[in-house]
Amino acid sequence: MITLVTKGIKVTVQTSFEGTFFKNYKMHYAFGYTITIENQTKEPVQLISRHWDVLDSLKEMESIDGEGVIGKKPVIQPGRSHTYSSGTLLASPIGAMKGFYEMVNLSTTETFEAEVPTFKFAAPFALN
Q: Taking every annotated instance into account, which residue ranges of this chain make up the domain ApaG (predicted)?
């Protein structure tokens, strides 16, 4: 588990290896991650978008941008948190992701970025 706090938003990430499978005649490695976003400020915030940099050890880094997370734009009240799970497919058994959430303070309408720490993926059989 890895944690980072930015501007009062605590982001904690837990990863898991979900298995391997063939797709389009190529081996793929499936990884899951669960992220908890905790609002440690005194103001309500809303997550409005996300940015990911995905590193696959066999490919160039890929950047992904999108609205919300898993189809939601959660409002997180002070002292509360939002947890969700998602996943990614890699061409190799080793990789990583990092990024940020674009947040808006609902009291002031100020937008800011809450960083997501770099989290690593490694299939158990890939490490000595």
A: 3-128
